[in-house]
Amino acid sequence: MAEIKLAAEARTEFGKGAARRIRRDNKIPAVLYGHGGDPVHVTLPGHESMLALRQTNVLLNIDVDGKGQLAVAKDVQRDPVRNTIEHIDLQVVRAGEKITVDIAVNIVGESAPGTIHLVEEQTLSVEAEATHLPESVEVSIEGLESGAQIHAEDVALPAGSVLLTDPKAVVVLVTEPRGEAGDDDAASAESPAEASSES
Questions:
Q1: Does the predicted model carry a pTM greater than 0.70?
Q2: Beta bridge partners of 74
Q3: Nearest to residue 4, comparing CAs of 45, 52, 42, 46?
Q4: Three-state secondary structure along the chain?
Q5: Tens-digit pLDDT profile for residues 113-149
Q6: 61 vs 52: CA distance, rounded Å
C-alpha cells in the first residue's frame, strides 16, 4: 500500500477551547507518539485526513515543518452524531518495523443450501511490517455444511503477517437457521392447551 502524505502544523494550543477552534477551521487535532520520543501535538487537514482514514491500516507520511514522519492511526475519535473526526492518535513507525494491527474478516462464497453462517470474529489481530500493512483477509465458506467451523489458524494470512489472535478462536460457524423446527414444535404443543381452554 502506498503511503499518503499529510501536511501537518505543530500545535501549541491545548484544551477543549483550542480543539474547537481547530475543528471550526476544518482541521483535526492529533498527537504523534512512539519510539521513546516526546509526544508531538499537531494539526492535520480535515478533509484530506478523512479521506485517508477511509482505508484500513493506512500508512501516513506526516510532514511537520518539512520533516516527514511515517505513522499509522491507532485511535480515531469520532463525533457520534456527525461522524466527523474529533482527534487522532498516531503511532510513529519505521520501515522494516513490525507492529500489531487488526485486519477485517471478509466472508466470500456461500455455505450449503439451508444453512447460515455466523461471524464470531470480525477482525483478526496480526503482526505485520509497518510499511506493508494488510487491510483485510478473505475467508471462504463455499459449500460448507452445518456444523463446520473455521478457526483463526485455518485462515490464510497475507504474506509477512503473523497471527496473534488465539489460533483456536472460531472465526466463522456454519449452522442451520434457528427457530424453524422449534416454532412448529411450539405450535403443536400449544394446540391441545388452546383446545382445552376453548372448551
A1: yes
A2: none
A3: 52
A4: CCCEEEEEEECCCCCHHHHHHHHHCCEEEEEEEECCEEEEEEEEEHHHHHHHCCCCCCCEEEEECCEEEEEEEEEEEECCCCCCEEEEEEEECCCCCEEEEEEEEEEECCCCCCCEEEECCCEEEEEEECCCCCCEEEEECCCCCCCCEEEHHHCCCCCCCEECCCCCCEEEEEECCCCHHHHHHHHHHHHHHHHHHHC
A5: 999 999 999 999 999 999 899 999 999 999 999 999 9
A6: 11
